[in-house]
Amino acid sequence: MISQNVGSETNVKLPFAFFAFSFLALLASQIILILNGTDFSSGNFRSSSILSAAHLFILGWTLMIAMGSMYQLVPVAFLTPIWNEKFGFIQFGIFSVGVSSFGIFLYWSPQHALIPGIITIIGVIMFLFQMLMTLKKQAKPSILTLFVGTGLVSLLLTISLGISLIISWKTGLFSSHYHPIFRTHLLFGVGGWFTLLIFGFSYKMVPMFSLSHGYSMGLAKYVYFAYVSGLLLTVLAFFTDQDILLKVGFLLLFISFSLFAWHISTIIKKRIKKKLDKPFIYSLIAIGFGLLFHFLLFISLFTENSNDLIGPLLFLYIMLWIVLSILGYLYKIVPFLWWTHKYSKFVGKQSVPALKDMINEKRVILFLSSFIISCLLVYFGFIVQMFILVTVGLIHFSLTIIATTIDIFQVILK
Amino acid sequence: MEIIEKVRHELKNVFDPELNINVVDLGLIYNIKEISDRIIEIDMTLTTPGCPLHDSISSGVKHCVEHMKEVDQVYVNIVWEPAWSPDMMTEEGKKLLR
Fold first, then answer.
1. Between residues 329 and 348 of chain A, which touch chain B (CB distance below 8 Å)?
2. Which of A36, A148, A211, A322 is most exposed, with the fewest beta carbons within 10 Å of its own?
């Protein structure tokens, strides 16, 4: 008998291609943001420069990182290799051209962003097709498949709604539904895609990084159904303008997130590894932030100025739940990929570094804490409407996230 | 020292890079057999199915034992039954995780 090989490891060049591009998109988005800081500070979020910076950040950085990570994590979580790696490289090429041109057109001429938008959506559809074909090969689908699968459907809806917004912009079509479509676009992008994706992969990564055993997965299906019901009710509320539906939708999202946070805490309690790695602790802190912001978003609906509160809260939700989770896990994923590429072949032959030796945990604490502070500065600047505080927070934020990303990728020097 | 014990001792040089504990103290090595002269078969597991370090650790075990002067050939089988549990760790392994 020979050693069984599940053959589920992805060629590291594929996720690294996504990660390398994401870094360039991050730089571009932060440069645009700083150069046009007055639009952001004054709350003019729909200016062409802010739209360009936001899409370069969300599509070029966050989505690129998510795609690159999924090329590595899907084989791990679902015990099946990626369907077609060559197709993955082509998808990367098309998506990166789409996102770059989309960011440029949104900045210079938003009315002409349709074709770059279509190239971007082709890149996303190719990614969805790749994932569909990969998940189809999974021998035994699980609740994780449902989380990730629904996340992928939400991504498709997000992008399709985004394109319909551009069509509406250009032709006036759907103009009477512009606002509900815009809100649904945000909801599916932030809640449907990123949150469900992080839920799904957390159920694999939390036990793996904490070495937890003997926990129950029973609660996961309630988390899933509550969250998806919350999403659907909220969309219905957007289109019918029913206040009570919106409140019930946000309440269900909050209940689901509370169940998720509770479930993860029960898994962590069953851990064997008592001293958790610092990046992983920050991913757990991000869950706490997500829970807090879901609660605040729900409460804000009962205030008179909820429209003014939701925008800044959404900013915190994206940064301190989604981006902080991603940064925490990136500090685990990137060293792992590089370690596999460089040292895997030497295991059993010579001494090799542990994964923990690939990063400097003191810098992890410094950068990720600094990242949290910068986001809070921007938020409080908005709340008290202090222009200088938003600007300082914004510069702090840009420098910190760039420094953090460089710190994560300096692992390739080891 | 008989060959089985020598192999087990040698395997203490193969580490799980995530936990930084060797595969023996981690309880990953289920069985070591000398199936014929100088040919070794090892049944081992991993802490979780789909462990991303699957190939690195299993080939590390193979390389490590292949390099022993008493061994000509090694077969490594990854098995999932019985599933790994923390009880399979040695006292030394448990101490390292505290």
1. 336, 339-340, 343-345, 347-348
2. A36
